[in-house]
């Protein structure tokens, strides 16, 4: 690719189309103390849609590539600028280029009127009204501490007890697991003749991720305590197959599994007999499809159809996608559709699905120019964990490498500003060893505070108690993904908060959310950063005195943000390994950015990213040179396009295999070829900068944890 082509692509600084400023509205919920309107924060540069390469030369940073060495060290102009920056920061130690100059204007958000869907979580009915075995009711009350039924449980449990297939849809954290686990246990314990271990699997529960498999297995273990003759088991990627085979041989009656590992055993473990399976549960069905597991699902369904008696099938999802509707069509027989609000998974798909989010969830958005994103996240975390206590935060980012990098960076820099108990960081992503992942999962579950940095591997189904904040540092790839992420808080009637980070250019995503009945309030950037005023460790040596005027306060806050950014950058640049980690994180972020679905390309397009500014959000002082693969102009088949087309090929191949399997089994309805829409999990994109040891499976676009 020519350098001019590269420039064309990457010199476009984000700018908000004028229409978005008028269509979006602003909420002042968060701005309790100080109002900071965009008028006061007039940018020094005029608003433009694109900045041409010539204009960009004006800017303080190299947009695409790090400047050639002769420029970095040579031209007096550059040196002069650096000097000014040092002066501006007011401290000899502040080498950071001005964080608050040359940023795109932050648009005024006008919030469209949204009628948010509300689902009542609890009913007045209780488990004891359902004619369940008294020991089961006692276990629910005493071991699981539940007595009243949730709305979804009230509708689902009687339907499943009657033996019907069901398609169940309900908001996150509404108790879907018990809605199928309770009737399953009730019917298994009542089976005549009595269930025995040697019967082998009677129920299969398929879930998309390993953590969810462990969590669900745990629930069955508790529910089955009084019925010791019924044995639950878990099969999942990352575990030793040999040990699993031994457990299968010994006998398991309720098998909870991830799709890849179950399909693997069906094909390769002779002792896994499916002939007795009477229940099949597909939990988080939309996620199973999103991850491209249609081939594995086909193996499972074909395996069951070949040998099994008639069985009861249940499909559950918090969100709907056309794929889920088609899957419901394929694997459910005359199902009952259950939904607390909105259509059920077996209903025909509508144009724009409305999502229900928990009533007690407060949703915020902060518009942050790329350059300021990192320090804004750091300030937010300090505010929640150091200045206000008892917060438990999950931060979603778009790649394993970004998780690793932030964990290293914050774990080293932010913890300096807080006592140990105040601020602890954990990480969870698909490149971690299973043992470590399970340990982190349990550790974060058990802790009352702390920050979990993670990819979307933690977005679905995980029930982590008392999470107070969900931060989406990288925006989700769809509204459904947004709903699942925020659903990790405000569960089962509790309260919680969420904060979505968007750059000014991405502000129209708020309208996309509103189209799905999701309403977010604005949290002002300055209000987030203002927490730095609470600690003089961030004080610069500037002449500004916050007491004198709002402008001086603003300047003071900016100066402190610059001090913190400098600390972050100093850390990154203190070791070549950290610089490399930052570059990997940046590269994987850019890769993920190319994979937004077509209808969101206008909101999230690589062309709108300014590489120099984005690099800053990874603690890099300059845009790194030679990021590979580099972006190409649209339609020019550059490396980014190759990444995309490879993904499409993989999805196509999976769909092809699916068709092949179905052709071998003409008795079953075919899964719709549209399953090739199954997209890769964005959050597990890698930079491609790691060595050749990348796992084979990842090449297929599926990371190990979902095996
Ligand atoms: N009737 C109930 N009363 C009180 N707590 C309940 C009840 N039913 C379930 N819970 C608890 O609520 C939490 C959330 O349940 P669960 O994980 O099944 O929700 P979910 O609807 O599957 O959420 P997601 O869509 O995010 O997977 C769990 O801790 C569970 O033990």
Bound molecules: adenosine-5'-triphosphate
Give the neighbour order of strands across the main sheet.
5-6-4-7-8-3-9
What's the N-to-C terminus distance? Answer: 37 Å
Do you know the CATH topology of the domain at 362-615?
Rossmann fold
- Structure summary, number of beta strands: 16
Helical amount: 25-40%
Function: RNA helicase.
EC number: 3.6.4.13
Family: Belongs to the DEAD box helicase family. DDX31/DBP7 subfamily.
Pfam families: CTE_SPB4 (PF13959), DEAD (PF00270), Helicase_C (PF00271)
How are the elements arranged and paired?
Elements: H1 3-10, H2 18-23, H3 53-56, H4 69-73, H5 76-89, E1 122-126, H6 134-142, E2 148-150, H7 151-161, E3 166-169, H8 176-189, E4 203-206, H9 210-223, E5 232-235, H10 241-250, E6 254-257, H11 259-268, E7 279-282, H12 285-290, H13 294-307, E8 312-317, H14 322-331, E9 336-339, E10 361-367, H15 373-387, E11 392-396, H16 400-413, E12 425-428, H17 434-446, E13 450-454, E14 469-472, H18 479-486, E15 496-502, H19 509-515, E16 521-522, H20 525-529, H21 550-572, H22 576-593, H23 611-616, H24 639-664, H25 696-699
Parallel strand pairs: 3-8, 3-9, 4-6, 4-7, 5-6, 7-8, 10-15, 10-16, 11-13, 11-14, 12-13, 14-15
Antiparallel strand pairs: 1-2
Helix pairs in contact: 7-8, 8-9, 11-13, 13-24, 15-21, 16-21, 16-22
The structure holds adenosine-5'-triphosphate.
Region (Disordered): 16-100, 620-707
Motif (Q motif): 125-154
EC number: 3.6.4.13
């Amino acid at each position: 690719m020519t350098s001019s082509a590269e420039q064309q692509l990457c010199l476009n600084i984000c700018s908000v189309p004028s229409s978005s400023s008028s269509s979006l509205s602003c909420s002042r919920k968060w701005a309790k103390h100080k109002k900071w309107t965009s008028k006061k924060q007039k940018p020094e540069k005029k608003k433009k849609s694109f900045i041409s390469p010539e204009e960009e030369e004006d800017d303080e940073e190299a947009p695409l590539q790090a400047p050639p060495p002769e420029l970095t060290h040579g031209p007096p102009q550059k040196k002069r600028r650096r000097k000014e920056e040092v002066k501006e920061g007011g401290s000899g130690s502040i080498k950071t280029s001005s964080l608050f100059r040359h940023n795109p204007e932050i648009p005024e958000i006008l919030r469209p009127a949204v009628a948010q869907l509300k689902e009542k979580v609890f009913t007045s009915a209780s488990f004891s009204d359902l004619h369940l075995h008294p020991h089961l009711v006692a276990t629910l009350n005493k071991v699981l501490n539940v007595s009243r039924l949730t709305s979804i449980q009230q509708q689902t449990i009687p339907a499943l007890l009657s033996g019907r297939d069901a398609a169940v849809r309900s908001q996150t954290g509404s108790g879907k697991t018990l809605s199928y686990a309770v009737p399953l246990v009730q019917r298994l314990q009542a089976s005549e003749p009595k269930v025995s271990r040697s019967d082998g699997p009677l129920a299969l529960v398929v879930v998309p991720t390993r953590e969810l498999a462990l969590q669900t297995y745990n629930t069955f273990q508790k529910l089955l305590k009084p019925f010791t003759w019924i044995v639950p088991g878990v099969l999942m990627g990352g575990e030793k197959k040999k040990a699993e085979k031994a457990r299968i041989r010994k006998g398991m009656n309720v098998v909870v599994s991830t799709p890849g590992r179950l399909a693997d055993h069906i094909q390769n473990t002779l002792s896994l007999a499916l002939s007795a399976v009477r229940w099949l549960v597909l939990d988080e069905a939309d996620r199973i499809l999103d991850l491209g597991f249609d081939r594995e699902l086909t193996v499972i369904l074909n395996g069951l159809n070949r040998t099994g008696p008639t069985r009861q099938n249940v499909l559950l999802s918090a969100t709907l996608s056309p794929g889920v509707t088609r899957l419901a069509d394929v694997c459910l027989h005359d199902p009952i559709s259950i939904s607390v609000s909105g259509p059920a998974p077996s209903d025909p798909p509508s144009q724009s699905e409305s999502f229900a989010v928990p009533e007690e969830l407060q949703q915020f958005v902060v518009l942050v120019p790329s350059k300021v994103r990192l320090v804004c996240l750091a300030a937010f975390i300090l505010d929640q964990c150091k200045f206000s206590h008892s917060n438990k935060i999950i931060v979603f980012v778009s790649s394993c490498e970004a998780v690793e990098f932030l964990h290293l960076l914050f774990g080293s820099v932010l913890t300096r500003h807080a006592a140990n108990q105040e601020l602890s960081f954990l990480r969870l992503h698909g490149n971690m060893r299973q043992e470590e992942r399970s340990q982190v999962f349990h550790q974060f579950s058990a802790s009352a505070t702390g920050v979990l940095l993670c990819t979307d591997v933690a977005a679905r189904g995980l029930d982590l108690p008392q999470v107070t904040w969900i931060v989406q540092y990288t925006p989700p790839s769809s509204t459904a993904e947004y709903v699942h992420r925020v659903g990790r808080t405000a569960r089962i009637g509790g309260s919680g908060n969420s904060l979505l980070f968007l750059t000014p250019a991405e502000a129209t995503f708020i309208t996309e959310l509103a189209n799905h009945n999701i309403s977010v309030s604005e949290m002002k950037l300055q209000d987030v950063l203002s927490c730095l005023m609470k600690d003089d460790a961030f004080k610069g040596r500037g002449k500004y005195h916050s007491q004198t005027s709002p402008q001086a306060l603003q300047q003071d806050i900016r100066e402190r943000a610059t001090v913190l950014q400098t600390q972050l950058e100093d850390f990154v640049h203190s070791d070549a390994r950290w610089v490399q980690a930052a570059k990997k994180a940046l590269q994987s972020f850019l890769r993920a950015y190319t994979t937004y679905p077509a209808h969101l390309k206008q909101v999230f397009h690589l062309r709108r990213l300014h590489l120099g500014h984005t690099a800053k959000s990874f603690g890099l002082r300059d845009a790194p040179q030679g990021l590979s693969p580099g972006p190409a102009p649209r339609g020019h088949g550059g490396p980014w396009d190759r990444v995309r087309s490879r993904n499409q090929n993989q999805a196509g191949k999976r769909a092809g295999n699916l068709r092949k399997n179905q052709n071998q089994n003409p008795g079953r309805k075919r899964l719709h070829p549209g399953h090739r829409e199954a997209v890769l999990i964005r959050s597990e994109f890698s930079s491609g900068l790691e060595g050749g040891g990348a796992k084979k499976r990842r090449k297929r676009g599926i990371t190990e944890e979902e095996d």
